[in-house]
Design a protein that fits this description.
alpha+beta, 179 residues
Length: 179
């Protein structure tokens, strides 16, 4: 069966261990990329003005903006699809990259605090950053799901997963119902 390359990124993103259940899995929201796209538009506009100032025609100016926007869109899309956030009943996982991989992972019982933040722009776009404080967190190794849609839901899912573990269960609980 043939699947598009971007779909393969989703399918190869995470392999749960036996008995491990995925509670949440996703990518940064497409809405989180609007700031990136606006920067690309600004760069395209500046390059178009420069092209106009050096005497290029209207077609060149238009093509300059079009090419910069196209490159910006492709880079943003690939960056988004190459980042996968996963929460299971046992661990948190962040995978970034297509060719080279950067993987961050921590056990769920090591999560001490979960919070989320939203700038004014993020609130308008209904996205936010979910920050996980873990037992061994330091400022160099932050564990953050950036630009997720409905960050409150992600916090709720982690709270639900960690609270389902009783005393002596290391904070690990089997999720009740399907997520």
């Amino acid at each position: 069966m043939h699947r598009p390359a971007w779909n393969m990124l989703v399918l190869m993103a995470f392999s749960p261990s036996p008995g491990e259940q995925i509670i949440f899995q996703g990518h940064p929201s497409w809405r989180a990329l609007w700031a990136f796209y606006l920067k690309g538009l600004a760069i395209g506009a500046v390059l178009a003005v420069i092209a106009k100032l050096i005497g290029e025609g209207s077609l060149t100016v238009f093509l300059t903006i079009l090419v910069v926007l196209g490159i910006t869109f492709v880079i943003g899309f690939v960056k988004r699809m190459a980042t996968t956030y996963t929460i299971t009943n046992r661990r948190l996982n962040i995978k970034r990259g297509i060719f080279a991989r950067d993987i961050q992972e921590t056990r769920l019982e090591r999560v001490q605090n979960v919070s989320y933040s939203q700038t004014v722009f993020q609130r308008i776009l209904q996205v936010g950053d979910v920050d996980f404080d873990t037992a061994s967190s330091d400022s160099e190794n932050e564990f953050v799901f950036n630009g997720v849609a409905d960050p409150q839901n992600v916090v709720t899912e982690v709270d639900r997963a960690t609270s389902q573990g009783g005393a002596g269960s290391h904070g690990l609980g089997e999720p009740s119902g399907s997520y």
